[in-house]
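User: For a benchmark we're assembling, each entry needs the component sequences followed by a predicted structure for the full assembly. Here are entry 17's components. Please fill in the structure.
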Amino acid sequence: MPERVYHEAKTVYNLEVAKHLRDNTRYIDWATTALFYAALHLIDAFLAGEHQLAKDEQHPRKHSANGNAGNGGRGRNQLVRALLIPIRKEYRSLEEASRRARYDLVILAPDTYEHLSDQFSKVEMYIKMRIMAQASQHNA
Amino acid sequence: MLTVESMKSEIDECLRNVPTKHHLSVRWEPAPGICRVGVCVHEYTWDIRDQVIDRLLAVEDAHEGDVAIEFDIFPLESVNTVGFAEV
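Assistant: Structure for entry 17:
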């Protein structure tokens, strides 16, 4: 599944960027953004293995959209709600923090990144478990 | 039928028990079904932000399949300074 390999590689890369920026620079806003995109690619790695979904939903191109005709399938946020509810709040929190970090000049509170990092860890652990379950199903 | 006014009223009601004052900005895009919500809170802490997210996701749940909520949560302080950019 080449798409999954790509998304997993992008997760690793974005996480490295986030950690580097967090540990070595004052650019916590971009560390937050990289952390969110690491989570996004984890979600996409999982969705790429959900073969019962329409192609547009296995590879979503939008953050948000309902499933109405003409929308090209549900957005990633709606797919997270439908298929990955235990980490929905964490994922949406990371998305919101990333957007605010990019658009606003206000420096995030010192402990914000640590909270977000905990949320990322929960997303990562859960997605890895679900991907393992997918692999078991596909091999059965 | 959903309107920007009905969504704003519903979200406002949902946020009533969050222990800080808030101001809402709501935009509604009927075709993709996206409701864009800005929540400005007077007391911005991780816990308050957490509570606001819970309530906004509950509103999204109440309109499953029809409404996708995109939200931003920001402190009042940032609106009163140069630190805020409208998105």
